Structure formats: C-alpha cells, structure tokens
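Protein modeling request. Please complete all fields; requests missing the sequence field cannot be processed.
Requester role: graduate student
Desired output: 3D structure, token encoding
Chains: 1
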Amino acid sequence: MPKIFISYRRTDSMAYTGRIYDRLVTAFGVKNVFKDVDDIPPGMDFRDVLDNALNASDIVLVIIGPQWLLTTDDYGKRRLLDPQDFVRLEVEAALKRDDVLVIPVLVNNAPMPSAESLPPTLKDLAYRNSIVVRNDPDFNRDISQLTDVIQKRQKPNRTPLILGLVALMAIIAVLALVVLPNMNQPTATPTPTQVAQVVQTEEATAEAPKATDVPPTVEASPTAEATTESSAIPEATEAAISAADLTPTVVYPDGRLLQFLYNNTSFYVYNASNRTLPFDALALEGLDAEGQPTAFRFEGSRWARRSESLFETACGAVEPPQFSDQLRPLQCTTYNSIINQTEANELFWRAENSAAFRVLWNGEEVGRCALDAAICEVRVP
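Delivered output (381 residues):
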C-alpha cells in the first residue's frame, strides 16, 4: 500500500484538504495517509515528524488553492519566498527525490503556478502534471480519479531481492563450512590422466567464443530522451522571458514595496510598505513580446479620483464586472479605491498582444512583471 503525504496551507485550503484526507483514509487506511494536524502527537518536534513522514512517503500531494502562492506572513512577505517556510521545505524535499511521485492538486478554481512565479528550488513543480479537485457535484468524480492514480503507484515488490540475499547468505555459509577448512590441507599431486583432462578442457574453452567478445546491442535510453525534453521546457521559458526583458529595474532597492496581484479577471496593487503612497504617481503599461510598450495602459489617477492615497497595507483594485471569479487576495483586507467601469485599452494585463507590463512611478520605469506570474513585487522611491 503506498504511503501518502499531504502538503497544504491551512489558510488556503483547509476545508478541501479535510475532505480529500477523509476520502484517502477510506481508500488506503489511516496509517498510510499523513496530514500534519492529525498526525503530529502533542509535544513532538514537528520538524522531525514531518521529515520522517516525507522520507517514508511514496506520493506527495501538494494541495494548491487560490492563495497558496500569495499567502504572506505578518510582515507582508510572501511565505513561499521564505527559505524556512514549511510548505516550501516539504515541496523542496519531495522534488529532490526520484522515488516520490509529486502531484499538484488544484482546488477551489486555483490556477497552476507558473515556473516564473515560484522560487528557483520549486520551479520543477510547475512541470508536474496536476489534478483538479472541484467542489460538488464534481468532487466524487475528481477524487476517484486521484485515488486511481495513487493505486497505480504501488510499492515495488522486494521479494526477489530478499530471496537473492537469502541465497547469497547460504552460499557464504557453504563456503565457510566446506571450502575454507580445506584450504589448509596439502594439495595432492595430479595424476597424468588428470593433467590430460585439464589440458583438453582448456583447449575446448579456448576454441569456444566468449560471450564477452560479442558486441552488446546498444538501445536508446528512454530516460535520456525524457531528460532532454524536460530540460528543454525551462530553457524555452527563460528565452521568452529574456525576449520581453522582464528583469525588474532595481532603481530603488531600499524603496517602498508594492505588490501586484492578478489573474485573468482582476488586478490589484497592495501597499506592503509602512507609508502612505499617492495613487497619481503610479502607471501600468502593457509590453509586447519584444518588450515594447503597447496601447494598453492604466493610470493611477483612475484610482486617485476615488481616493488620492494608497494607505499602508491597503489595496487599489480593477474589477471589471463582466468578468466573474475575481481574485480578491487575502492581503487586501482594506480597499482605498476599486475601479469597475474600465475602457478596453485599460485591461493591460489581459491584452492578447501583451506579454508583460512595466511599472512607472512619476513617469520613470521602476520594474517589469510577467503576465503569467500572478504576483510581482516592485519598489518605488
């Protein structure tokens, strides 16, 4: 029976994870499914418990909800960017192991994170095939698909290995009992008949072709081909990023931090600094694949018409009513300005001919962001 480890964020997907856990326990038994809330005894060092559970696992399910990528700590920093974040450590450890199947499980309409939005040590997760688990009425069908995948991942049969070890130990025992005691006995002088038999045997052996003289048949390694194809994916992604020149311009490394959070339906700016910022100073402009400005642009003055300032830990939002399932990030507990009525050329993060966007502060470019990143951080003076 495979051992299953469930990695998740409580603030992101606790309800979904609980339902998934219950169904997996029914299918595979409580001893074969690990979820930290239920499986860490009081008083135990949870770091050791998590490490031991990961080492014993055959499958790691990474439950990804809408805020998995964006959840922040008390200081407004993305948890996934913290090298000591336990979700990050769990996924990193799983990705390093060749004998573990890592499955991203997308819940609550969450998108699959892109490689560009993940820390370098987690980029491989973006290339793992995901499974979607939706709410009712699709939950039963989706969870059945997940359990089918897990059932096919059975532990390898180690019986032949064990039998081989037993046979080897038996041979060693025979050598110890029979051969070794006779090694100290005087060697008898062979008779002429015995010598002739040995000579004939050696001549017959010399005439017969050796198996090692036959050139081995060389077959193409499917593993090598898979490795080549896999390595081509990140190279292509990096080339696309380079073409659009998405490296942020670090003009103000000690400046005030702004976070841009977005999906296909809505766009948000979050003031992660400790000072109030003027909306008027900000502008966002779409860039094409060559990194050149497009006709799609959103001026911060649009937010400023409703509120002049973006307060500390507050947000400005663009939420066109024609799009459903707007993002509404957890960071945005307070909104200084929300724009609903937009012009077509203001939807810079949705335009087909836009590959990225740049951030302007008082007309000066201070950063660039990939459209598929879902989150981008820029510092302003």
